[in-house]
Amino acid sequence: MIGGLLFTFWRFFEIVTLIPTLGMLAYFVHQFEKQNLLTPNYVLVLFIVSVLAAAWAILTVFRRRSTRDSAIFVSFIDLCFIGAFIAGVYELRDIANASCSNFSADNHFSLTVDKNGISGSSPFHLNINKHCAMLKACFAFGIMNCIFFAITAFLLLFMHRTRKDDRDVVVKETYRRRSHDSR
């Protein structure tokens, strides 16, 4: 019972982190396709893995009973997704050291009071590179999904070991033959 609830809880987190990853990577795939360019491997690998993993996570949540019945198989597929996410994160590894934002401060500050109220300009400026930030978020979500799929794989192994109806009951019947010979 508790294993099933924990499994569903972690699967929900997987789905929640896979949906933004899918959206951001689909944006990149669309941008490259719109410019008639090949999508780079670092986007394509993680995108394909995320699509398959999202479909798998949703399927196993909706078919929880059959997931519990075939826990070893589902755990194996989860372990395969861990490897696939590691490959996707490895392809995207160069984004980890990229600086996606620039913060600067000026000495100039202005404040204007007029009939519409008070308006002013701040001396602080924050510039964020949208594409870099999105790729870095996909990188982080890929690492998180590696951890989440590892947790669900081990939960499934635990659920398989603790099932009560898996215990085999062996009944040995012995018959004693009596012979009618008397000694």
Describe the structure.
The chain has 183 residues and is mostly helical. The protein is built from 5 helices and 4 strands, in the order ααααββββα. The chain has helices at residues 2-34, 41-62, 64-69, 71-91, 130-161; strands at residues 101-105, 110-114, 117-121, 124-128. The strands form 2 sheets. A two-stranded antiparallel sheet has the order 1-4. A two-stranded antiparallel sheet has the order 2-3. A hairpin with a 2-residue loop joins strand 2 (110-114) and strand 3.
Give the SSE layout.
Blueprint: H1 2-34, H2 41-62, H3 64-69, H4 71-91, E1 101-105, E2 110-114, E3 117-121, E4 124-128, H5 130-161
Antiparallel strand pairs: 1-4, 2-3
Radius of gyration: 28 Å
Helix content: 55-70%
Proportion of residues in β-strands: 5-15%
The main pleated sheet reads as:
2 strands, antiparallel
| Global morphology | elongated
* End-to-end separation: 62 Å
Biggest sheet strand line-up: 1-4
Q: DSSP helix count?
A: 5
Low-confidence stretches: none
| Strands, count | 4
Q: Which structural class do you get from the secondary structure elements? A: mainly alpha
How confident is the prediction overall: mean pLDDT? 84
Give helix and strand order, one letter per element, not per position: HHHHEEEEH
